[in-house]
Amino acid sequence: MALLLEEEEFERIIPFVTWILIGLNIVVFVLELYHPWIIRAFCFVPADFFMGRHLETLITYMFIHEDILHLLVNMYFLWVFCDDLENVYGHGYFIFFYLASGVGGAIVYAVLNTGDPFSGTIGASGAIFGAMAAYAIFFPRRKLLIVSVYTLEIDAWKYAVIYAIIEFLFAMLGIFKNVAHTAHLGGFLTGTVIGYVYKVIAKPRIYRTPQKPW
């Protein structure tokens, strides 16, 4: 088990949308414990998507989690990446970006799904992979610390690329088939496109992370 830490933060505004998203995910998870039918009712099912049914699940699926570990891991990464992104995008555009990344993840999952089209997927991972991609675009040389048996320092862009390659290989080789790797890749791709376009067009003023000479 490894822990991911940032060496610094980029905050000029209070990232209350990020906090609200975390809070919503926790509330929904508590509701799931008492009403398990919520999972089936609001998960994203490829077959429904292609038949034009329950399109609201393009949004709702990303607020549902399988168990406490699934929730905690996703919320931790949401907290790591999204507070800084909210400061780059602003509150309103950040909401669009987050939801769009999750929707992109669901659509790619549906298109590339080779399993049971009536099997649903849940979780915030698609949106979070989009956040990871955008984080690497805006803070490419931000130092991240991977803390495990050993501590490894790595640039944000390298971390994102390595993670994306791993997910691609897992999807191609069918490793951990219970994980929606294609949804992760779809979110990553969506986040990359939106983040890059925003960076080029909006030219947000981002304080440069102090760079080390090596």
Structural summary, described in words:
The protein is mainly alpha-helical and 214 residues long. It is 62% helix and 7% strand. It has one domain: Up-down Bundle (Rhomboid-like fold), CATH 1.20.1540. The protein starts with a strand and ends in a 12-residue tail after the last helix. The C terminus is likely disordered.
Brief descriptors of the model:
single chain, 214 residues, mainly alpha, Rhomboid-like fold, three-stranded antiparallel beta sheet
**Widest sheet, order of strands:** 1-2-3
Q: Overall pLDDT, averaged?
A: 90
Beta strand %: 5-15%
- CATH level 4 superfamily: Rhomboid-like
Distance between the termini: 28 Å
Instruction: Name the structural class.
Output: mainly alpha
The value of Rg in angstroms is 17 Å
Number of DSSP-assigned strands: 3
Low-confidence segments = 209-214
What's a quick, concise take on this entry?
This protein has 214 residues and is mainly alpha-helical. 62% of the residues lie in helices and 7% in strands.
List the helices and strands and how they pair.
Layout: E1 3-6, H1 16-34, H2 37-42, H3 46-50, H4 57-60, H5 68-89, H6 91-112, H7 125-138, E2 143-147, E3 151-155, H8 156-173, H9 181-202
Antiparallel strand pairs: 1-2, 2-3
Helix pairs in contact: 1-5, 5-6, 5-7, 6-7, 6-9, 7-8, 7-9, 8-9
